[in-house]
Amino acid sequence: MENSFIERAKSSCALGGAIATISSLPRSIPIVHASGGCAQTLSATYNLGSGYKGPGYCSGTMTPTSNITENNIVFGGEERLEEQIEATLRVMEGDLYFVVTGCQVEIIGDNAALVTSRFKDRPKPVLYASAPGFLGDGFKGYEAVLSSLVKDFIAPSTKKDNKTVNILGFMPGQDVFYRGNIQNLIFLLNKLDLKVNSFFGDGETIEKIKNYGQAAYNLVFSPIHGQQTAQAFEETHDIPTLTVDLPIGDTGSEAFLRQIAEPLNLPKAKVEAVIAEEKAIYYSYFQRFLEITGDLDYQRYAVVSSDINYAFPLIQYVSEDLGWIPHLVVVNEEPDDEESSAQYVKKFETLTAKARPKIVFEANTGQLLRHVRESWPYNHNDKYYNQLAPLFVIASSLDGSAAQKLGANYLPVSYPVTNRAVLTKGYAGYRGGLNLAEDLYSSLVSNR
Amino acid sequence: MVDKNNLLEGLVYNYTSATEPPTRDVRIEPTNAFLGSCDSLRRAMGKGCAKYNSRYFSQGVGCQLTLALGIVRTFQNVVTIIHGPLGCGSNNIGLAGFNKTARALKGKPANDVIWIHTNLDESDVINGGVVKLRNAVLYAEKEYRPDVIVVGNSCVPGIIGDDIDAVLEELEPQVAAKLVPVHCEGFRSRFVASGYDSAYHGLLKKLVEPPIRIESVLVGNSAEEERLEKIKRQNSRTVNLLNVGSTSYGDEVELSRILSALGLKVNVLPLYGHIDEIAKMGEAGLNVSICATHDDYLIGHLKERFGTPYVIDTLPIGIKNTNQWLRVIGETMGLVEETEKLIELETSQLLEAVEPFKPILSGKTIWVGGGETRIFTTAEFFQSLGMKVLGLKPHNFDRFAVPMLDDIEDPETAVAVAAGQPAEELVYLKRLKPDLYVGHGGSNGWVVRLGIPTIPLYGQSQNYMGYSGAFELARKAARALLNTNLSKKIVANVPLPFKQEWFDSNPQDNIKESPQEEPPVRSSVQ
Questions:
Q1: Size of interface A-B (CB pairs under 8 A)
Q2: Is there a contact between A23 and A136 (Cβ–Cβ < 8 Å)?
Q3: For B304, which of B13, B213, B233, B371 could close a Cys bridge (C-beta 3.0–4.6 Å)?
Q4: A10 and B93 in contact by Cβ < 8 A?
Q5: Are residues B282 and B330 in the same domain?
Q6: Considering the domain boundaries, does residue A56 fall inside one?
Q7: How many domains does chain B have?
């Protein structure tokens, strides 16, 4: 995808991603070195747009920020930053303070790294990451923050614990269901006696994060996001990386468990036992819907429009677990290199339905409708017209009116989600697959 | 001190030959860093020394680009282009669904809110981003056939010097849409409200057409012609009711109802307006503001250029201020008698209606935070119901709110002027422990963590203004006090991110008082 303008981009900028990430770390305080509006605007992007996750411990209007103005643009903002860091340490209670920089100060060349380094002997860590908006979307800031943590904070450890994994790829806010997804994966991996380091999961602390260098493996649940952090783990802490898809439901979870079994040296019998147990529970619930599925013919054509983390897992779930027709996948972002794109497209060949989905990379939200229309013959006033119906669109809240125009049922899953309120829900794992079934079916029965 | 009856005294407004108006920092010299009392604030404003104050510890003050976008993205059939990286105005994402619903509520076509980021990246920072801007404009035209394309300029092109006006001028002959540049780079102003001026500057320059009839009057300038013009305007009976982002449909219905009762024809605009309605703004007989912080540039300009009279001295929240607002309108439109009759009827009905809430509210204490004119009028209303105002937190403070200080009974009532800055406000609240907090969006969620029940200062689906709005506000406050369990649970379980030392400190020590009155450097960085 060439770097161009984007119509209704489904993300914020690097600084927005950085703030969302820091404010989701346990008891962490972002210190934003930028103009006065960045912290609030960018926080609001995720606080409202991500199922109303809110500002957390310290973001939104609470975010400490240097509020640089025209004066600083002329004379530099380093002094102001130093003053703001000092004041923040005096006012705000936290276990970690994190300086991040915006466009203005990066263009004028403030050395925020140097200023931050003057605070290295304070009782609580003060870290720095460069995250100006012009670096790109929110994921860029997520990577910048976590990479800094990995390189500058996490303690080196030669001793590795074979039973511990780091999980990456879930950006708070950008993944609306990140907490639920993380908890679902912890639940699943705990069954295999694995300990999970997640940065954002329940019960995490900055003290625990300091020891992430002891993990034996990085599991990255995305072909592109979290990879930079994983690389930092590899380079700084010698921890190898395994890239996996976000597992949703029976097919995805089983594939995931089998994929990690060998590299992580998991006992085969144990893995098989967990798969069997979870599968049995999964279908003991799912079978409840069989009657309505059959009686009301709830098989659907499926269109997915989402970020790259969700695109394949969502279509895989509806195709392989629900038996829907995987028709079109619009991926709202694309890897930087053609080879990775081609690899991503290749994943879809593993789908076993006779119907093959069309895969499109498209960042402009308004183009979804065009892609759907181009995917199917027009009705030339034929007496008998094989319509693209009944149709289900799984996308974001910005795609609601496209779904409406298509006469489709619709569930927003990928960011942004503004017409649902989200707390614990996650779609990862077997239990997450049941959550997704509940939500898809709830949409189908909502008028009854 | 500014004359209470002429709040625009000494201000000039016609900057149409400039690409952008002066920021509020220099245009109306407000302050957003002053902690004291109603009395000490009045004295500080009089001396004019509060305006360069700043802070040691600071939190976000907001971005003028987001406020400018808040206006222009509501227009009908508009595409907004944000010339900048993906983050600028990305809070659009959280508000797009709401704006769409608001369109439907107001009986307008419920189309999606459409915006485009030029998505400036590292290489654009070096090479400039005008090519992307050009492509974005052409895409908007081709895909959406909008009536108007508004381009909001952000910090990056502001610093590197992209000439967006030149790009738009070049594209004008190629597109059917009107092209409106809005210069609202965040770093340029310490006062977010400058964003309103930026948006209205673009609107006044590119969309509003001069009323035809004005020509003949401006040729001569005799007192007789002025008198005739006044009569003409009064006879037109048409008023612009200038809505803002925080006015709800309910507010618009109520205020239109009141004005219609005086026989006036009401245009509600510019938000959610159609370009043709906006084009004819200059034709109305009167511009009625419901918030000086939003509108002074707009109405000042329309007065200066077209001679349209205006009402700006208050906003219609509570009984006293709704009556006052109405009286000024009545006087300007030559409807004094009718207005007094209406006020008498409405006031007596309302007083009777709020009577049942008084026993619940009377004697209770309150703190109000948000936009200056809104919080003073809201506080005055609750005071009139027997509540005690413990303090107010205006986002900024300027000449338009100075007269409102008189409405607060106790001159020692705390005033903490601060854009955002929940840290300071929360210290006050922890000490004063009001029974109820009325706050701007983004503040209520922190205040409830102190165990203080809250109600929102405004609500886009609720009625706050006019007589029915006063009733709703009283009803809402009384309801909030009927069950305060949530705030009790939250204070016991959800922490605020402060050190105890901060709560023990004097927040006034956080203000860096400006030693001299020299203005800060103002130069363009190109």
A1: 258
A2: no
A3: B13
A4: yes
A5: yes
A6: yes
A7: 3
CA-based nearest residue to B497, from A67, A96, A126, A204: A96
Cβ contacts of A124 on chain B, cutoff 8 Å = none
Determine, yes or no, domain membership for B26: no
Residues A52 and A147 reside in one and the same domain: yes
Q: Which domain holds residue B257?
A: 214-348
By the CB < 8 Å criterion, does A144 face chain B? no
**ipTM of the predicted structure?**
0.96
A370 touches chain B (CB under 8 A): no
A79 touches chain B (CB under 8 A): no
Verify whether the Cβ–Cβ distance A45 to B97 is below 8 Å. Answer: no
B57 vs A44, A58, A91: nearest CB: A91
Peptide bond before residue B270 is cis, with ω within 30 degrees of 0: yes
Indicate yes or no: CB of B87 within 8 angstroms of CB of A36.
no
- Domain presence at residue A433: no
The structure's pTM equals: 0.96
pLDDT block averages, 10 residues each, chain B of length 526: 81 91 90 94 78 90 95 97 97 91 92 97 95 98 98 96 97 98 95 96 95 57 72 82 94 97 96 96 93 95 93 94 96 95 98 98 98 97 98 96 95 96 98 97 97 95 96 98 98 98 96 63 37
| B121–A contact, CB cutoff 8 A | yes
Provide the CATH number for the domain around residue A317: 3.40.50.1980
How many C-beta atoms lie closer than 10 Å to residue A210's C-beta? 15
The answer to whether B450 contacts chain A (CB < 8 Å) is no
Full domain range(s) for residue A306: 298-417
In the beta sheet, which residues pair with residue A220?
A: A168, A243
β-pairing verdict for B414-418 and B33-37: antiparallel
On whether both B342 and B481 belong to a single domain, the answer is no
Residue B398: half-sphere exposure toward Cβ, Cα within 13 Å: 24
In a domain? residue A290: no
